[in-house]
Amino acid sequence: MKRTFKTALAAACMATAATTWVVAPTAAAAADAAPFKIGLIVPMTGPFASTGKQIDAAVKLYMQQHGTTVDGRTIQVILRDDGGLQPENTKRIAQEMVVQDKVNVLAGFGLTPLAFAAAPVATQAKIPMVVMAAATSSIVKKSPYIVRTSQTLPQVTAPLADWAAKNPKIKSVITLITDYGPGHDAEKVFIKHFTDGGGKILESIRVPLQNPDFAPFLQRVRDAKPDAVFVFVPSGPGIALMKQFKDKGLAKAGIQIIGTGDVLDDDLMPSMGNEVEGVVTSQHYSAAHKSPENKAYVAAFEKLTDNKMRPNFMSVGGYDGMHLIYAALKKAGPTATGDQLLAAMKGMHWESPRGPISIDPQTRDIVQNIYLRRAEKVNGQYWNVEFETVPNVKDPGV
Ligand code: PHB
pLDDT grade, residue 3 (50/70/90)? Predict the structure, then answer.
């Protein structure tokens, strides 16, 4: 698979624009052409639009680099925007894609409630559902057809909590998480690992998912004076959280902020100020990851988006999700059924821009390195610079 990435740039230069790209609703493709259809459901509007835009760009990049056919079968991506916050809407779109568009694979799913809502549709249709973004541990249990290429919050949180417990400057912590599935996972796993390592939790604060205002919660943190505040917010509100952290003077009061990488999302980092300096987070992807594969990926992604976007962890979820689908189709044959594709996906492993990854054949969840990173200014912009790697982390569950 290394070869695939090494030749990626050359392929990108040779590839013409993806001619099969369509934005649904579309007429069903001619039956004789029998394209292989991927129903991509992501938020392209609303507060989580950056997730959809990152995944959409990564899917386009993958097709530009690897072509729009696999063993002679045309690949067609049908993109639908679910707006990000209405599970019933996501479920209806998934049903329409199965019944009307006759998709072979469902993919995307920007947030946990949306993945939960679509899961029964995949089970009933017996087609793989590739979760490229959502990250609550239990998602893979919601359908035997779910395969995940993103992350799980327990997987990312446990290494950070272990690091914090060993840090002599962090003896007491307040957890501050967004009040839904992935936040609950992060809170539980952080508390367990940090207290097992001898640390003390002073308080656990939960912030609403919709229209969050972090200021009153950060004031509570300031008043309680922990050594650090551990945060999880989904990709998007990190800018507001970091700004309010600065405005409330927490750093000046000697309170460190640590968190999962979602808060220092690479998509947002170029717009962040010196409030991020030195902040330690853990995650499976940084655009600053030092590998030739990632260097090529970042350059190609920036080129595709006219230097307007830096790829974030959502983008690699989409890029690797496409790789998984292409590789499964290659392995199982161009007329493979949903069950055959699913079987081909189990146990697959390859080199991603994020590092080596695999799909656990039992759980269908991703196994990957988790990196500890520190925000540092490099060439005028902040980047998450990796300083420690925890290899091959499986989802530990909650
Ligand atoms: C989720 O809803 O599962 C989710 C969304 C965005 C993240 C992490 C988790 O950054």
Answer: very low
Q: How far apart are CA 255 and CA 371, in angstroms?
A: 23
Residues with a CB atom less than 6 Å from ligand 1: 111-112, 133-136, 182, 234-235, 262
3-state secondary structure of 376: strand
Predicted pLDDT of residue 2: 38
* Continuous H helices in 255-363: 292-304, 313-332, 338-345
Rg value, the chain, Cα: 20
Burial of 295 (0-12, 13-18, 19+ CB in 10 A): middle
In the reported structure, the alpha carbon of residue 271 is separated from the centroid of ligand 1 by a whole-number distance in angstroms of: 20
Report how far apart, in Å, the C-alpha atoms of 94 and of each of 89, 127, 343 are: 9, 11, 22
Nearest CA residue ID for atom 6, ligand 1? 234
- In whole angstroms, give the CA distance from residue 394 to residue 386: 19
pLDDT at 11 over 70: no
Q: How far is the CA of 51 from the centre of ligand 1 (A)?
A: 9
The predicted structure's pLDDT at residue 34: 87
pLDDT, one tens digit per residue, over 89-125 is 999 999 999 999 999 999 999 999 999 999 999 999 9
Using most ligand atoms within 8 A of CB, pick from 262, 267, 312 the residue to mutate for ligand 1.
262
Using one digit for the tens of pLDDT, what is the confidence trace for 337-381?
999 999 999 999 999 999 999 999 999 999 999 999 999 999 999
- Protein residue with its CA nearest to atom 2 in ligand 1: 111
How many CB atoms within 10 Å of residue 20? 15
Whole-number Å distance, alpha carbon 231 to ligand 1 midpoint, is 13
Q: pTM of the full predicted structure?
A: 0.92
- Ligand 1 pocket: which of 235, 241, 315, 366 to mutate (most atoms <8 Å of CB)? 235
Q: How far apart are the first and last CA of the chain?
A: 32
Distance CA 230, CA 282 (A): 11
Q: Give the residue whose CA is nearest to atom 3 of ligand 1.
A: 134
Q: Ligand 1: which of 86, 112, 189 to mutate, judged by most atoms within 8 Å of the beta carbon?
A: 112
Helix, strand and coil in the chain, % to nearest 5? 40, 25, 35
